Amino acid sequence: MTRVVLNGRFLAQKGTGVQRYARETLLALDSLLASPGSDRITLELCVPAGAAAISLRHIKVTVLPWLKGHAWEQITLAWHAGRDLLVGFNYSGPVLKRHQVITVHDATVAAMPSCFSWRYRLVHNGLLAMLKNRVASMMTVSEFSAQELRARYAVKNRIVVGREGWSHAVSPTDDTAVLAKYGLGEGGYVLLVGSIKPNKNLEVVARALEKLPQFPWPVAVAGAPDTRIFRNVPDLSNRLKLLGFVSDDELGALYRHAAWFLFPSLYEGFGLPALEAMANGCPVLAAAAGSLPEVCADAALFFDPRDAESLASLLLDVSRNEELRDHLRTRAAGRLSYYTWQANAQVLLNEILLRLGVLAPSRGELDGVGPIARSQT
User: Fold this and answer.
1) Phi, psi (5° rounding) for residue 145?
2) Are residues 211 and 300 in the same domain?
3) Which among 38, 92, 139, 155 could disulfide-bond with 103, CB atoms 3.0 to 4.6 Å apart, if both were Cys?
4) Which domain holds residue 48?
5) CA–CA gap between residue 131 and residue 90 (Å, rounded)
6) Domain identity same for 302 and 345
7) Strand order of the sheet with strand 41-48?
8) Taking the complete model, does pTM exceed 0.85, yes or no?
9) What is the domain count for the chain?
10) Pairing between β-strand 284-287 and β-strand 260-263 as defined by DSSP bridges
11) How would you class 228 by CB atoms within 10 Å of its CB: exposed for 0-12, middle for 13-18, buried for 19 or more?
12) For 122-179, how does the pLDDT look when each residue is reduced to its tens digit (9 = 90+)?
């Protein structure tokens, strides 16, 4: 049996989309370990002291109590992994280790640096500069992100494109109570989900609503409230409902009863909320930017995220055409069948087996400067 070490540092970090990806991919990977070829490897998840618990059936969990943060990853984890393959679910890993696979979700730090502190940019860009062409291979979440990593970070090594999933976003809850809590009516609002930062582009929504005084629905914004994002626009407090932080269960209820989901982001490496909305039967209005056209394909309606007139026109159209909602719900089924955590875990497992020589590479598959690998698993 060949040991593969999994970097579990994410379980000691604050939960964001990156940690969501890591957790769901890990759980799906655990469920795949009875598949052909996987009986020749053993997976060990290594976590720092104080990490959140996770229940796994086939993957051994080992607590490495020495050090924490980057020091834990660079020293403790690297020492424990030794010469074995190390697999990480997010942007970082031991910079001196070559026999590893890391996951880099996007190039947002390079594309929109104003979204991040200078300290974060320094650490992120420094680690990526040292790791990008040293590691055995790199995973990412969309073809768009793969192209961006090559263009903005000059990644020449192998990039494997995986997928994100949506099953985590569908859970039963008391929907009536959730709607009452936030003062929303069934089918009577547009939902927007996202943290308040420049790439989320919330200001274009306010400017579009300014052009639609008779628009029938308020826009409910689930995310940290910050009214400064709507500076230099008229008072729209009766049209914008800033909900603040919303739990996962509550968010599912809000998706299910929204008239539309609105995604105005200027830059997304994947755009998971669009998939979450589709999974809950909510039709999507998405920016024609970043990875969103790739992920949503024909299951969304698109607008120019830098043009308030474009968004205002689309909002007016959908408020008058109920049939569009049913049409997009039907098309969403294809996206939901393609994007699953199981599929992403299978892409990762195939890459692990390929790195270990258990799977034979196809022609050109190990070419470090070759084309992006596309898995059709």
Assistant:
1) -65, -40
2) yes
3) 139
4) 2-165+340-374
5) 12
6) no
7) 60-64, 41-48, 2-7, 85-87, 100-103, 137-140, 159-161, 373-374
8) yes
9) 2
10) parallel
11) exposed
12) 999 999 999 999 999 999 999 999 999 999 999 999 999 999 999 999 988 999 999 9
